[in-house]
Amino acid sequence: MGTHVIKMPDIGEGIAEVELSQWHVKVGDLVVEDQVLADVMTDKAMVDIPSPVHGKVIALGGQPGEVMAVGSVLISIEVEGAGNLKESAAPTPVAVKEPAAPKAEAVVETKPAAAAPRSAAVCQGPMVAREANERPLASPAVRKHALDLGIQLRLVRGSGPAGRVLHEDLDAYLAQGQSNAQAPVAAYAQRNDEEQIQVIGMRRKIAQRMQDATQRAAHFSYVEEIDVTAIEELRAHLNEKHGASRGKLTLLPFLVRALVVALRDFPQMNARYDDEAQIITRLGAVHVGVATQSDVGLMVPVVRHAEARSLWDSAAEISRLANAARNGKASRDELSGSSITLTSLGALGGIVSTPVLNLPEVAIVGVNKIVERPMVVKGQVVIRKMMNLSSSFDHRVVDGMDAALFIQAIRGLLEQPATLFVE
Question: How far apart are CA 274 and CA 277, in angstroms?
Fold first, then answer.
């Protein structure tokens, strides 16, 4: 028997240390080649580290939340064959969240067994009790399918290699009526349970960025009410006429277009502020960040050069980027470089919100939900579709009057949608 040691990989870009976000294995587990062992986190990227060999986990090099130096021992795996302490490269990681993953460095060269051993967790039956924080092996498609079905993956026993949950396992779980396997709590039963959740990985990065943004920028918010009846009628008409051939339009591409047009008169909003160098950089290109919720937290994929895109081009790019972010496939380039951010909670948008700036940007435009309300128009009470824009700005760079005029310019464009396309 030999020992195969995997070192903490070099993510690149001069990064000297990374955070160990989550283990997917424990000591004693049997693993197969390409099975994901751990998630590691940099400032912008979460990367899955796969196993380059078949074998048994004999030692873990750190705890979730621990910051580890590049090149330090990540995990040791017992393998068949004689080991020698000669370094060899591990295969490229396969499941990548955000950027393309680097190669993990191994320090033992061995020959794995010809047949891949099955994980000790694999056995008969559709249901298994895993720890609450244990992440079962599954592809992004299976995870989305489980989410759509309302199934907790940790309750489903996987029949794939190393206990990987397959689509067939979800079907078997449903067939045996296990979706309500956990006993319900009586409506008035007294509860004394507690749950502690460690803030690590993506959640830690989000927390750090939000705290940094609120501490460094001088936030102020401005809310404006907008009559979106006309833009909604235009959207419905375009979808009816071109939806089948060009795809359906949501309100977001119209908002992106309104941003592009309004920024021509308010270039100070399309800027980044380096508060250490005391330099404001105004951009001609409009790179719109679209805040997107994913399983691992809030991400902001970027619609690049929105000023050069049609409605349908913007819609397709928004959809592509949102899917990539939710499935953990967005690259580092797709998640950085925005010049202004658009955030929306859709139907859950509420009446008013106070968005936090996406530093180093100086403006973020927040979209609240559309509601029908009685409004007075030319002395008559009529039902109109109304929506609020709740937007925040960095008062170190943006004056209050300019912020109000900017949002009112967007309001005018949306209330008179023909002006979106008049050059």
Answer: 6
